[in-house]
């Protein structure tokens, strides 16, 4: 009875998986769409600047920093933040227009893996002789293979109405799979591994038993009932067999 | 003759070394400041803003007399609950991190657009006080009307987050249990036969 209930529960649990998986999928899709957030209202002419190439301005230094992430580990499908530091060594204020980035293969920069959403700024400026920091939040596609990729990040800004562009980062990032240690695949793999080891152990144990049985059997030889003297058996006393044998003895 | 040549070579090398050191780019501190603000709604209905500012020095030399001032929270909209909106430190070495946080209580409802915090510091090579700005914060919807959470929203969230892992572990454990426990019905049959 208990086994029946258990089996029903087991199959019921298996069937319950499908709606649960769907819930999880929906949530992650929504998250992947939010790849860059906007600060403020969008400028009208921002499309002229996105995707174009300008030269860097002299007197502007940029630095890229991954907060609390010195190994530059980026989980695929989850939001990652990096900080762009700008130093304006010149004499006129500069206005940040947009920060954009793209992911490439490390050995060939012409192979584009993913273009990341550009973050547009409306009212971000850096006064002369000051340093300022700007955040850039991005999320890589969760289907990216976990390996090193090259991230190229550029910031487009204008000084006195002329646009300039600086690359603040052109290096490698380490993409890893999002998700903890316990996942569907890892649990099944671990259980499979343990069961294989147990099976191997059982097989070795069997082999040992067989070998030990063979050596024992050599010393103990099974003999049938042929060599025992039937007349010596107690239970034949008083029976027809004994009387006939005693008669034959008397006759002799 | 050889000694003379060697001496002059050494002097030339020392000169070049000092010249390169003096003209080396990036020998100043580069302050990168990260400002984060998050809203927490208390059970009493009031809203708290937790502000944390991390200051990193990504340059190559030490910044002295680092002082942080965050004046972007007006008195008529926020009350300081704990901590101070300004703080100063003696120095920040290259590669180091300084952290400061404080809490505010929101008084007025509405969208709030915060300005960056200002960090001032001194460097040995320049007399003027150096300035750096932190990251701006995303607009905060202070004391927003939140729709009441439906009955089992928290359970649904937990299930969505951990559902797959819990079900996988329970399937595996059930399977192992099924294999290890002997079938009770067959044992009962065997004992009946013996009688």
UniProtKB/TrEMBL annotation, chain A:
The chain crosses the membrane at residues 186-204. The keyword ATP-binding does not apply. One of its GO terms (cellular component) is endoplasmic reticulum membrane. It is found in: Endoplasmic reticulum membrane. It comes from the Eukaryota. Pfam families: TRAP_alpha. InterPro entries: TRAP_alpha (IPR005595). Keywords: Calcium, Endoplasmic reticulum, Membrane, Signal, Transmembrane, Transmembrane helix. Its main location: endoplasmic reticulum. Residues 1-26 form the signal peptide. It is a single-pass type I membrane protein. Shows a remarkable charge distribution with the N-terminus being highly negatively charged, and the cytoplasmic C-terminus positively charged. Heterotetramer of TRAP-alpha, TRAP-beta, TRAP-delta and TRAP-gamma. TRAP proteins are part of a complex whose function is to bind calcium to the ER membrane and thereby regulate the retention of ER resident proteins. May be involved in the recycling of the translocation apparatus after completion of the translocation process or may function as a membrane-bound chaperone facilitating folding of translocated proteins. Belongs to the TRAP-alpha family. This is Translocon-associated protein subunit alpha. It comes from Gossypium hirsutum. The gene is LOC107939135.
TrEMBL record, chain B:
It is found in: Endoplasmic reticulum membrane. The chain crosses the membrane at residues 162-180. Coiled coil: none annotated. Residues 1-24 form the signal peptide. GO terms for cellular component: endoplasmic reticulum membrane. Pfam families: TRAP_beta. Its main location: endoplasmic reticulum. InterPro entries: TRAP_beta. It is a single-pass type I membrane protein. TRAP proteins are part of a complex whose function is to bind calcium to the ER membrane and thereby regulate the retention of ER resident proteins. Belongs to the TRAP-beta family. This is Translocon-associated protein subunit beta. It comes from Gossypium hirsutum.
């Amino acid at each position: 009875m208990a086994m029946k209930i258990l089996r029903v529960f087991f199959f019921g649990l298996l069937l319950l998986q499908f709606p649960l998986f769907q819930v999880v999928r929906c949530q992650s899709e929504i998250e992947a769409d939010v790849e860059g957030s906007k600060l403020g209202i969008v400028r009208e002419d921002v499309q002229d600047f996105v995707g174009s190439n300008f030269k860097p301005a002299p007197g502007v230094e940029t630095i890229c920093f991954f907060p609390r992430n010195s190994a530059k580990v980026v989980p695929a499908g989850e939001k990652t933040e990096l900080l762009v530091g700008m130093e304006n060594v010149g004499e006129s204020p500069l206005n940040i227009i947009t920060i954009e980035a793209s992911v490439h293969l490390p050995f060939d920069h012409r192979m584009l893996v993913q273009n990341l959403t550009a973050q547009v700024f409306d009212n971000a400026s850096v006064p002369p002789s000051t340093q300022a920091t700007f955040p850039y939040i991005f999320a890589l596609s969760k289907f990216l293979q976990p390996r090193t990729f090259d991230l190229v990040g550029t910031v487009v800004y204008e000084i006195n109405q002329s646009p300039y562009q600086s690359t603040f980062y052109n290096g490698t990032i380490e993409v890893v799979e999002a998700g903890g240690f316990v996942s569907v695949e890892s649990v099944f793999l671990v259980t499979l591994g343990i069961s294989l080891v147990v099976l191997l152990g059982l097989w070795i144990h069997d082999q040992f038993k067989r070998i030990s049985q063979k050596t024992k059997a050599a010393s103990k030889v099974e003999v049938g009932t042929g060599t025992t003297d039937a007349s010596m058996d107690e239970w034949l006393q008083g029976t027809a067999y004994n009387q006939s044998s005693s008669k034959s003895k008397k006759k002799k | 003759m050889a000694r003379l040549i060697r001496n002059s070579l050494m002097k030339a090398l020392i000169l070049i070394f000092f010249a390169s050191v003096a003209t080396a780019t990036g020998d100043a501190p580069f302050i990168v400041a990260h400002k984060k603000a998050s809203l927490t709604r208390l059970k009493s209905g009031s809203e708290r803003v937790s502000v944390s500012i991390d200051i990193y020095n990504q340059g190559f030399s030490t910044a002295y007399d680092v002082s942080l001032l965050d004046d972007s929270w007006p008195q008529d909209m926020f009350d300081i609950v704990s901590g101070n909106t300004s703080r100063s430190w003696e120095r920040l070495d290259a590669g180091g991190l300084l952290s400061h946080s404080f809490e505010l209580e929101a008084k007025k409802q509405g969208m709030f657009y915060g300005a960056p915090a200002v960090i001032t510091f001194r460097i040995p090579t320049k007399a003027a006080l150096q300035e750096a700005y932190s990251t701006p914060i995303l607009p905060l919807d202070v004391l927003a009307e939140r729709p009441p959470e439906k009955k089992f929203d928290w359970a649904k969230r937990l299930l969505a987050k951990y559902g797959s892992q819990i079900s996988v572990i329970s399937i595996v454990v059930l399977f192992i249990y099924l294999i290890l426990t002997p079938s009770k019905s067959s044992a009962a049959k065997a004992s009946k036969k013996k009688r």
